[in-house]
Specification:
heterotrimer, A alpha+beta (201), B mainly alpha (117), C mainly alpha (492), A: 201 residues, alpha+beta, Cytochrome Bc1 Complex, Chain D, domain 2, two-stranded antiparallel ribbon, 5 helices, 4 strands, elongated, B: mainly alpha
Amino acid sequence: MNTTPLWASETFWKKTAIWVTAVSFLLLIVLTFDSMAKVSAGSTARVPAYSVINKKIDYRLNAKLNRYVPVVESDAPLFGKTLSDEEAEKLVTLGKKTFQAKNCINCHTILGNGAYYAPDLTKSWLDPNWVDETNRETLMLAFLQDPAGNARSYGTGRRMPDLGITEDEARGLIAFLKWTAAIDTNGFPHNFKTLYAQENQ
Amino acid sequence: MIEPVALDDFFVNVFSAATIILAGASYAALLAWGKLTRRPGFLILAYVSYGVLAVSVWLLAETSHFEGFWRIIAGLMLIGYFAAPQAIWRLCTVTHAGEHSEHDRPIINQQQEGEQS
Amino acid sequence: MSVGVLDSRNLNGGQKLAVKYFIVAMVLFVAQILFGLLAAVQFLAPGFLFETLDFSVNRMLHINAMIVWMLYGFIGAVYWFLEEESGVEIVGLKLGEIAFWVLTAAVGVVVLVYLFLQIGAGDDTTRWLINEGREYIEAPRWADIGIVAVMLVFFYNVAGTFSKGRWSGVSGVLTLDLVALVGLYLAGMFYTTNVTVDHYWWWWVVHLWVEATWEVLVGCIMAWSLMKLLGARRKIVQTWLYIEVALMFGSGILGLGHHYFWIGTPEYWFPIGGFFSALEPIPLVAMVVHSIYDAGVHKFKSTNHPALGWVIAHTFGNFFGAGVWGFMHTLPQINLYTHGTQWTASHGHLSFFGAYATINIAFFYLAVQQWRGNVWMGANLADNGWKWKWSMVLLNLGVVGMTVALLIAGYEQSFIERAIEGSTWSGYFAAQTHPWFTQAMFWRLIFGIVTAVGLVLLIWDLATIGARETRPALVIERPEEPGIKAAVVETA
């Protein structure tokens, strides 16, 4: 097989495979370092510090970016109590651990990933379903602890099962969801109008 | 950065994206089959497929509001999806050359080498 | 050696271990379909098994069973050809045997915990002992560690056996790919509160497994099968394996970017994800072209018709499921609407079946043939081979039917929920109650049942094919028919 041209030879493609893989992976590593620096909580506006749960969160159209971006406004402490950075992180952590322990992701999606049996939770804190902010926390607490009793299935018959969520866990979950709502997700989900937007219109 | 697809263009957008891949594959398949059987009819059909692909790329680019960098991607798709099947075909003939005497691709006078690892 | 009788004397050491893996794989395949059906029913009748076996549990078991049965199939296939490819006996067969039982016991325990405990309190214990609660990699941490340990034993057997015997292109690619496979799993084995960071690394495991390392692993299995069964020439097969590795990794590694559009990561992932997504169909097209080449140039004498049939299903399924269905909704301009809808489920069903289930089933047929003393599996099978033909038709029809139904549901969802209603909860439910959606869910269940019937036939066929057959398999005397993806069945 001496006449096989170089570009069709086994050794050529072996080397190509190795180089292509190595270069791609190296690029991925570099990009990963960069992304990690930009998405650690509080490092940039993309992923806010956990203490954002002390603030009012809303979305506004950014004409330059052509999408809605989160805006963190006046003080609006969760459950009426301003938390330190550590306390906020602790509460959000309890929520995230509960989110995993209750297997939420196998019915819901968050950041669009998960199952498609129940609504996306990325911006659930801001969903117009809560009507306005006056009763939102109370409604959320009640719903999480007794989902069947407070079921809202909008005619689908789908209900959330009782997952034995304690009051502390429910508070944690709400903190986690409030913090998640402040993540800049490049405009996902599209065209979402917060409960404030509906008020302002 | 990106301008999402408009509601009215939904179907065209999705359909053109699927068509790009389907037409790309049928272009590649017809090209290979045409060259293999030396029947120009298949080659003509292959280039017709590529034409469908090109139109689909244009539709996708329009409905996706491609601007700036995204236009370059559309251009690369036009070039890449044209060239890749040709290159793959060449690779097939050259890597397989030398194993058979009875079939085509006269690049190499074949030798039956024994299979050994 | 008696032809037509299941006899372990027909198998070498690695192959005896391999058939154990294959049997568990089939059991898990049944579990996958069973829990999939339960979940499909719940879309139509939400009260079904409510608070007993909720959708979340069924859906988790449906997908986990699939992932694990595919891995069992891959591991089994590698053990199957390890001794022949290396030329020596497996270095740690006993250890491999123990690892198999440990893994299987662990899988059993995890399934029981999923079924009966399901969830726990919002603390670290739950994640370690019950459920990690991250999609696809829900296995609790103790099981993660067990899986890694078992994979290391597997890796030791592969690398050790090739080192003792001989290396080749196939074994080299395989070994490096396994390093990547195990290494990537570690990227999913930590807790973080930051959900963006969580999903970032989670995609490393999920995407780099199924769109990169699994594809290459299947490429190795395929390469060996084609040399063995069609007498394909090693030099050509290996050249093409390298070409596929270059194309797969070249497009697939940075193709990861198309999962980083909406999770809080920077905007530069838009162009990266878009560009590499446009590259990802090329390796699949390369396979199609090569199949045509082989089909046209060579007259295959296939020794195993069912296996070859499933290899063909693999080429098409991989192309449509991963290529067409993937590219259709991958660019951010459209993905903004389709991400997180049934569209993804549609793509998932066709691509996993097309790319991985098919190739495993093909290998099961090869294994059964050898297990029965290299029995005839060419043309003119007993009863005209109706069982394998019909199971193949029903399985493919069922999966394609589900895929189309889910596509319609996903299309409707993107349209109503996202584009019109602005992605609120009421928008979500408006889409879920739309007639297009509910009818699609009905048809998905119907085609799910078709799939289940196909599976029953498949099991029946695998258990009986070649029994009472007296003809030995067709012998391919000389390696004269090369090719990477075979595409023509010729009656001998």
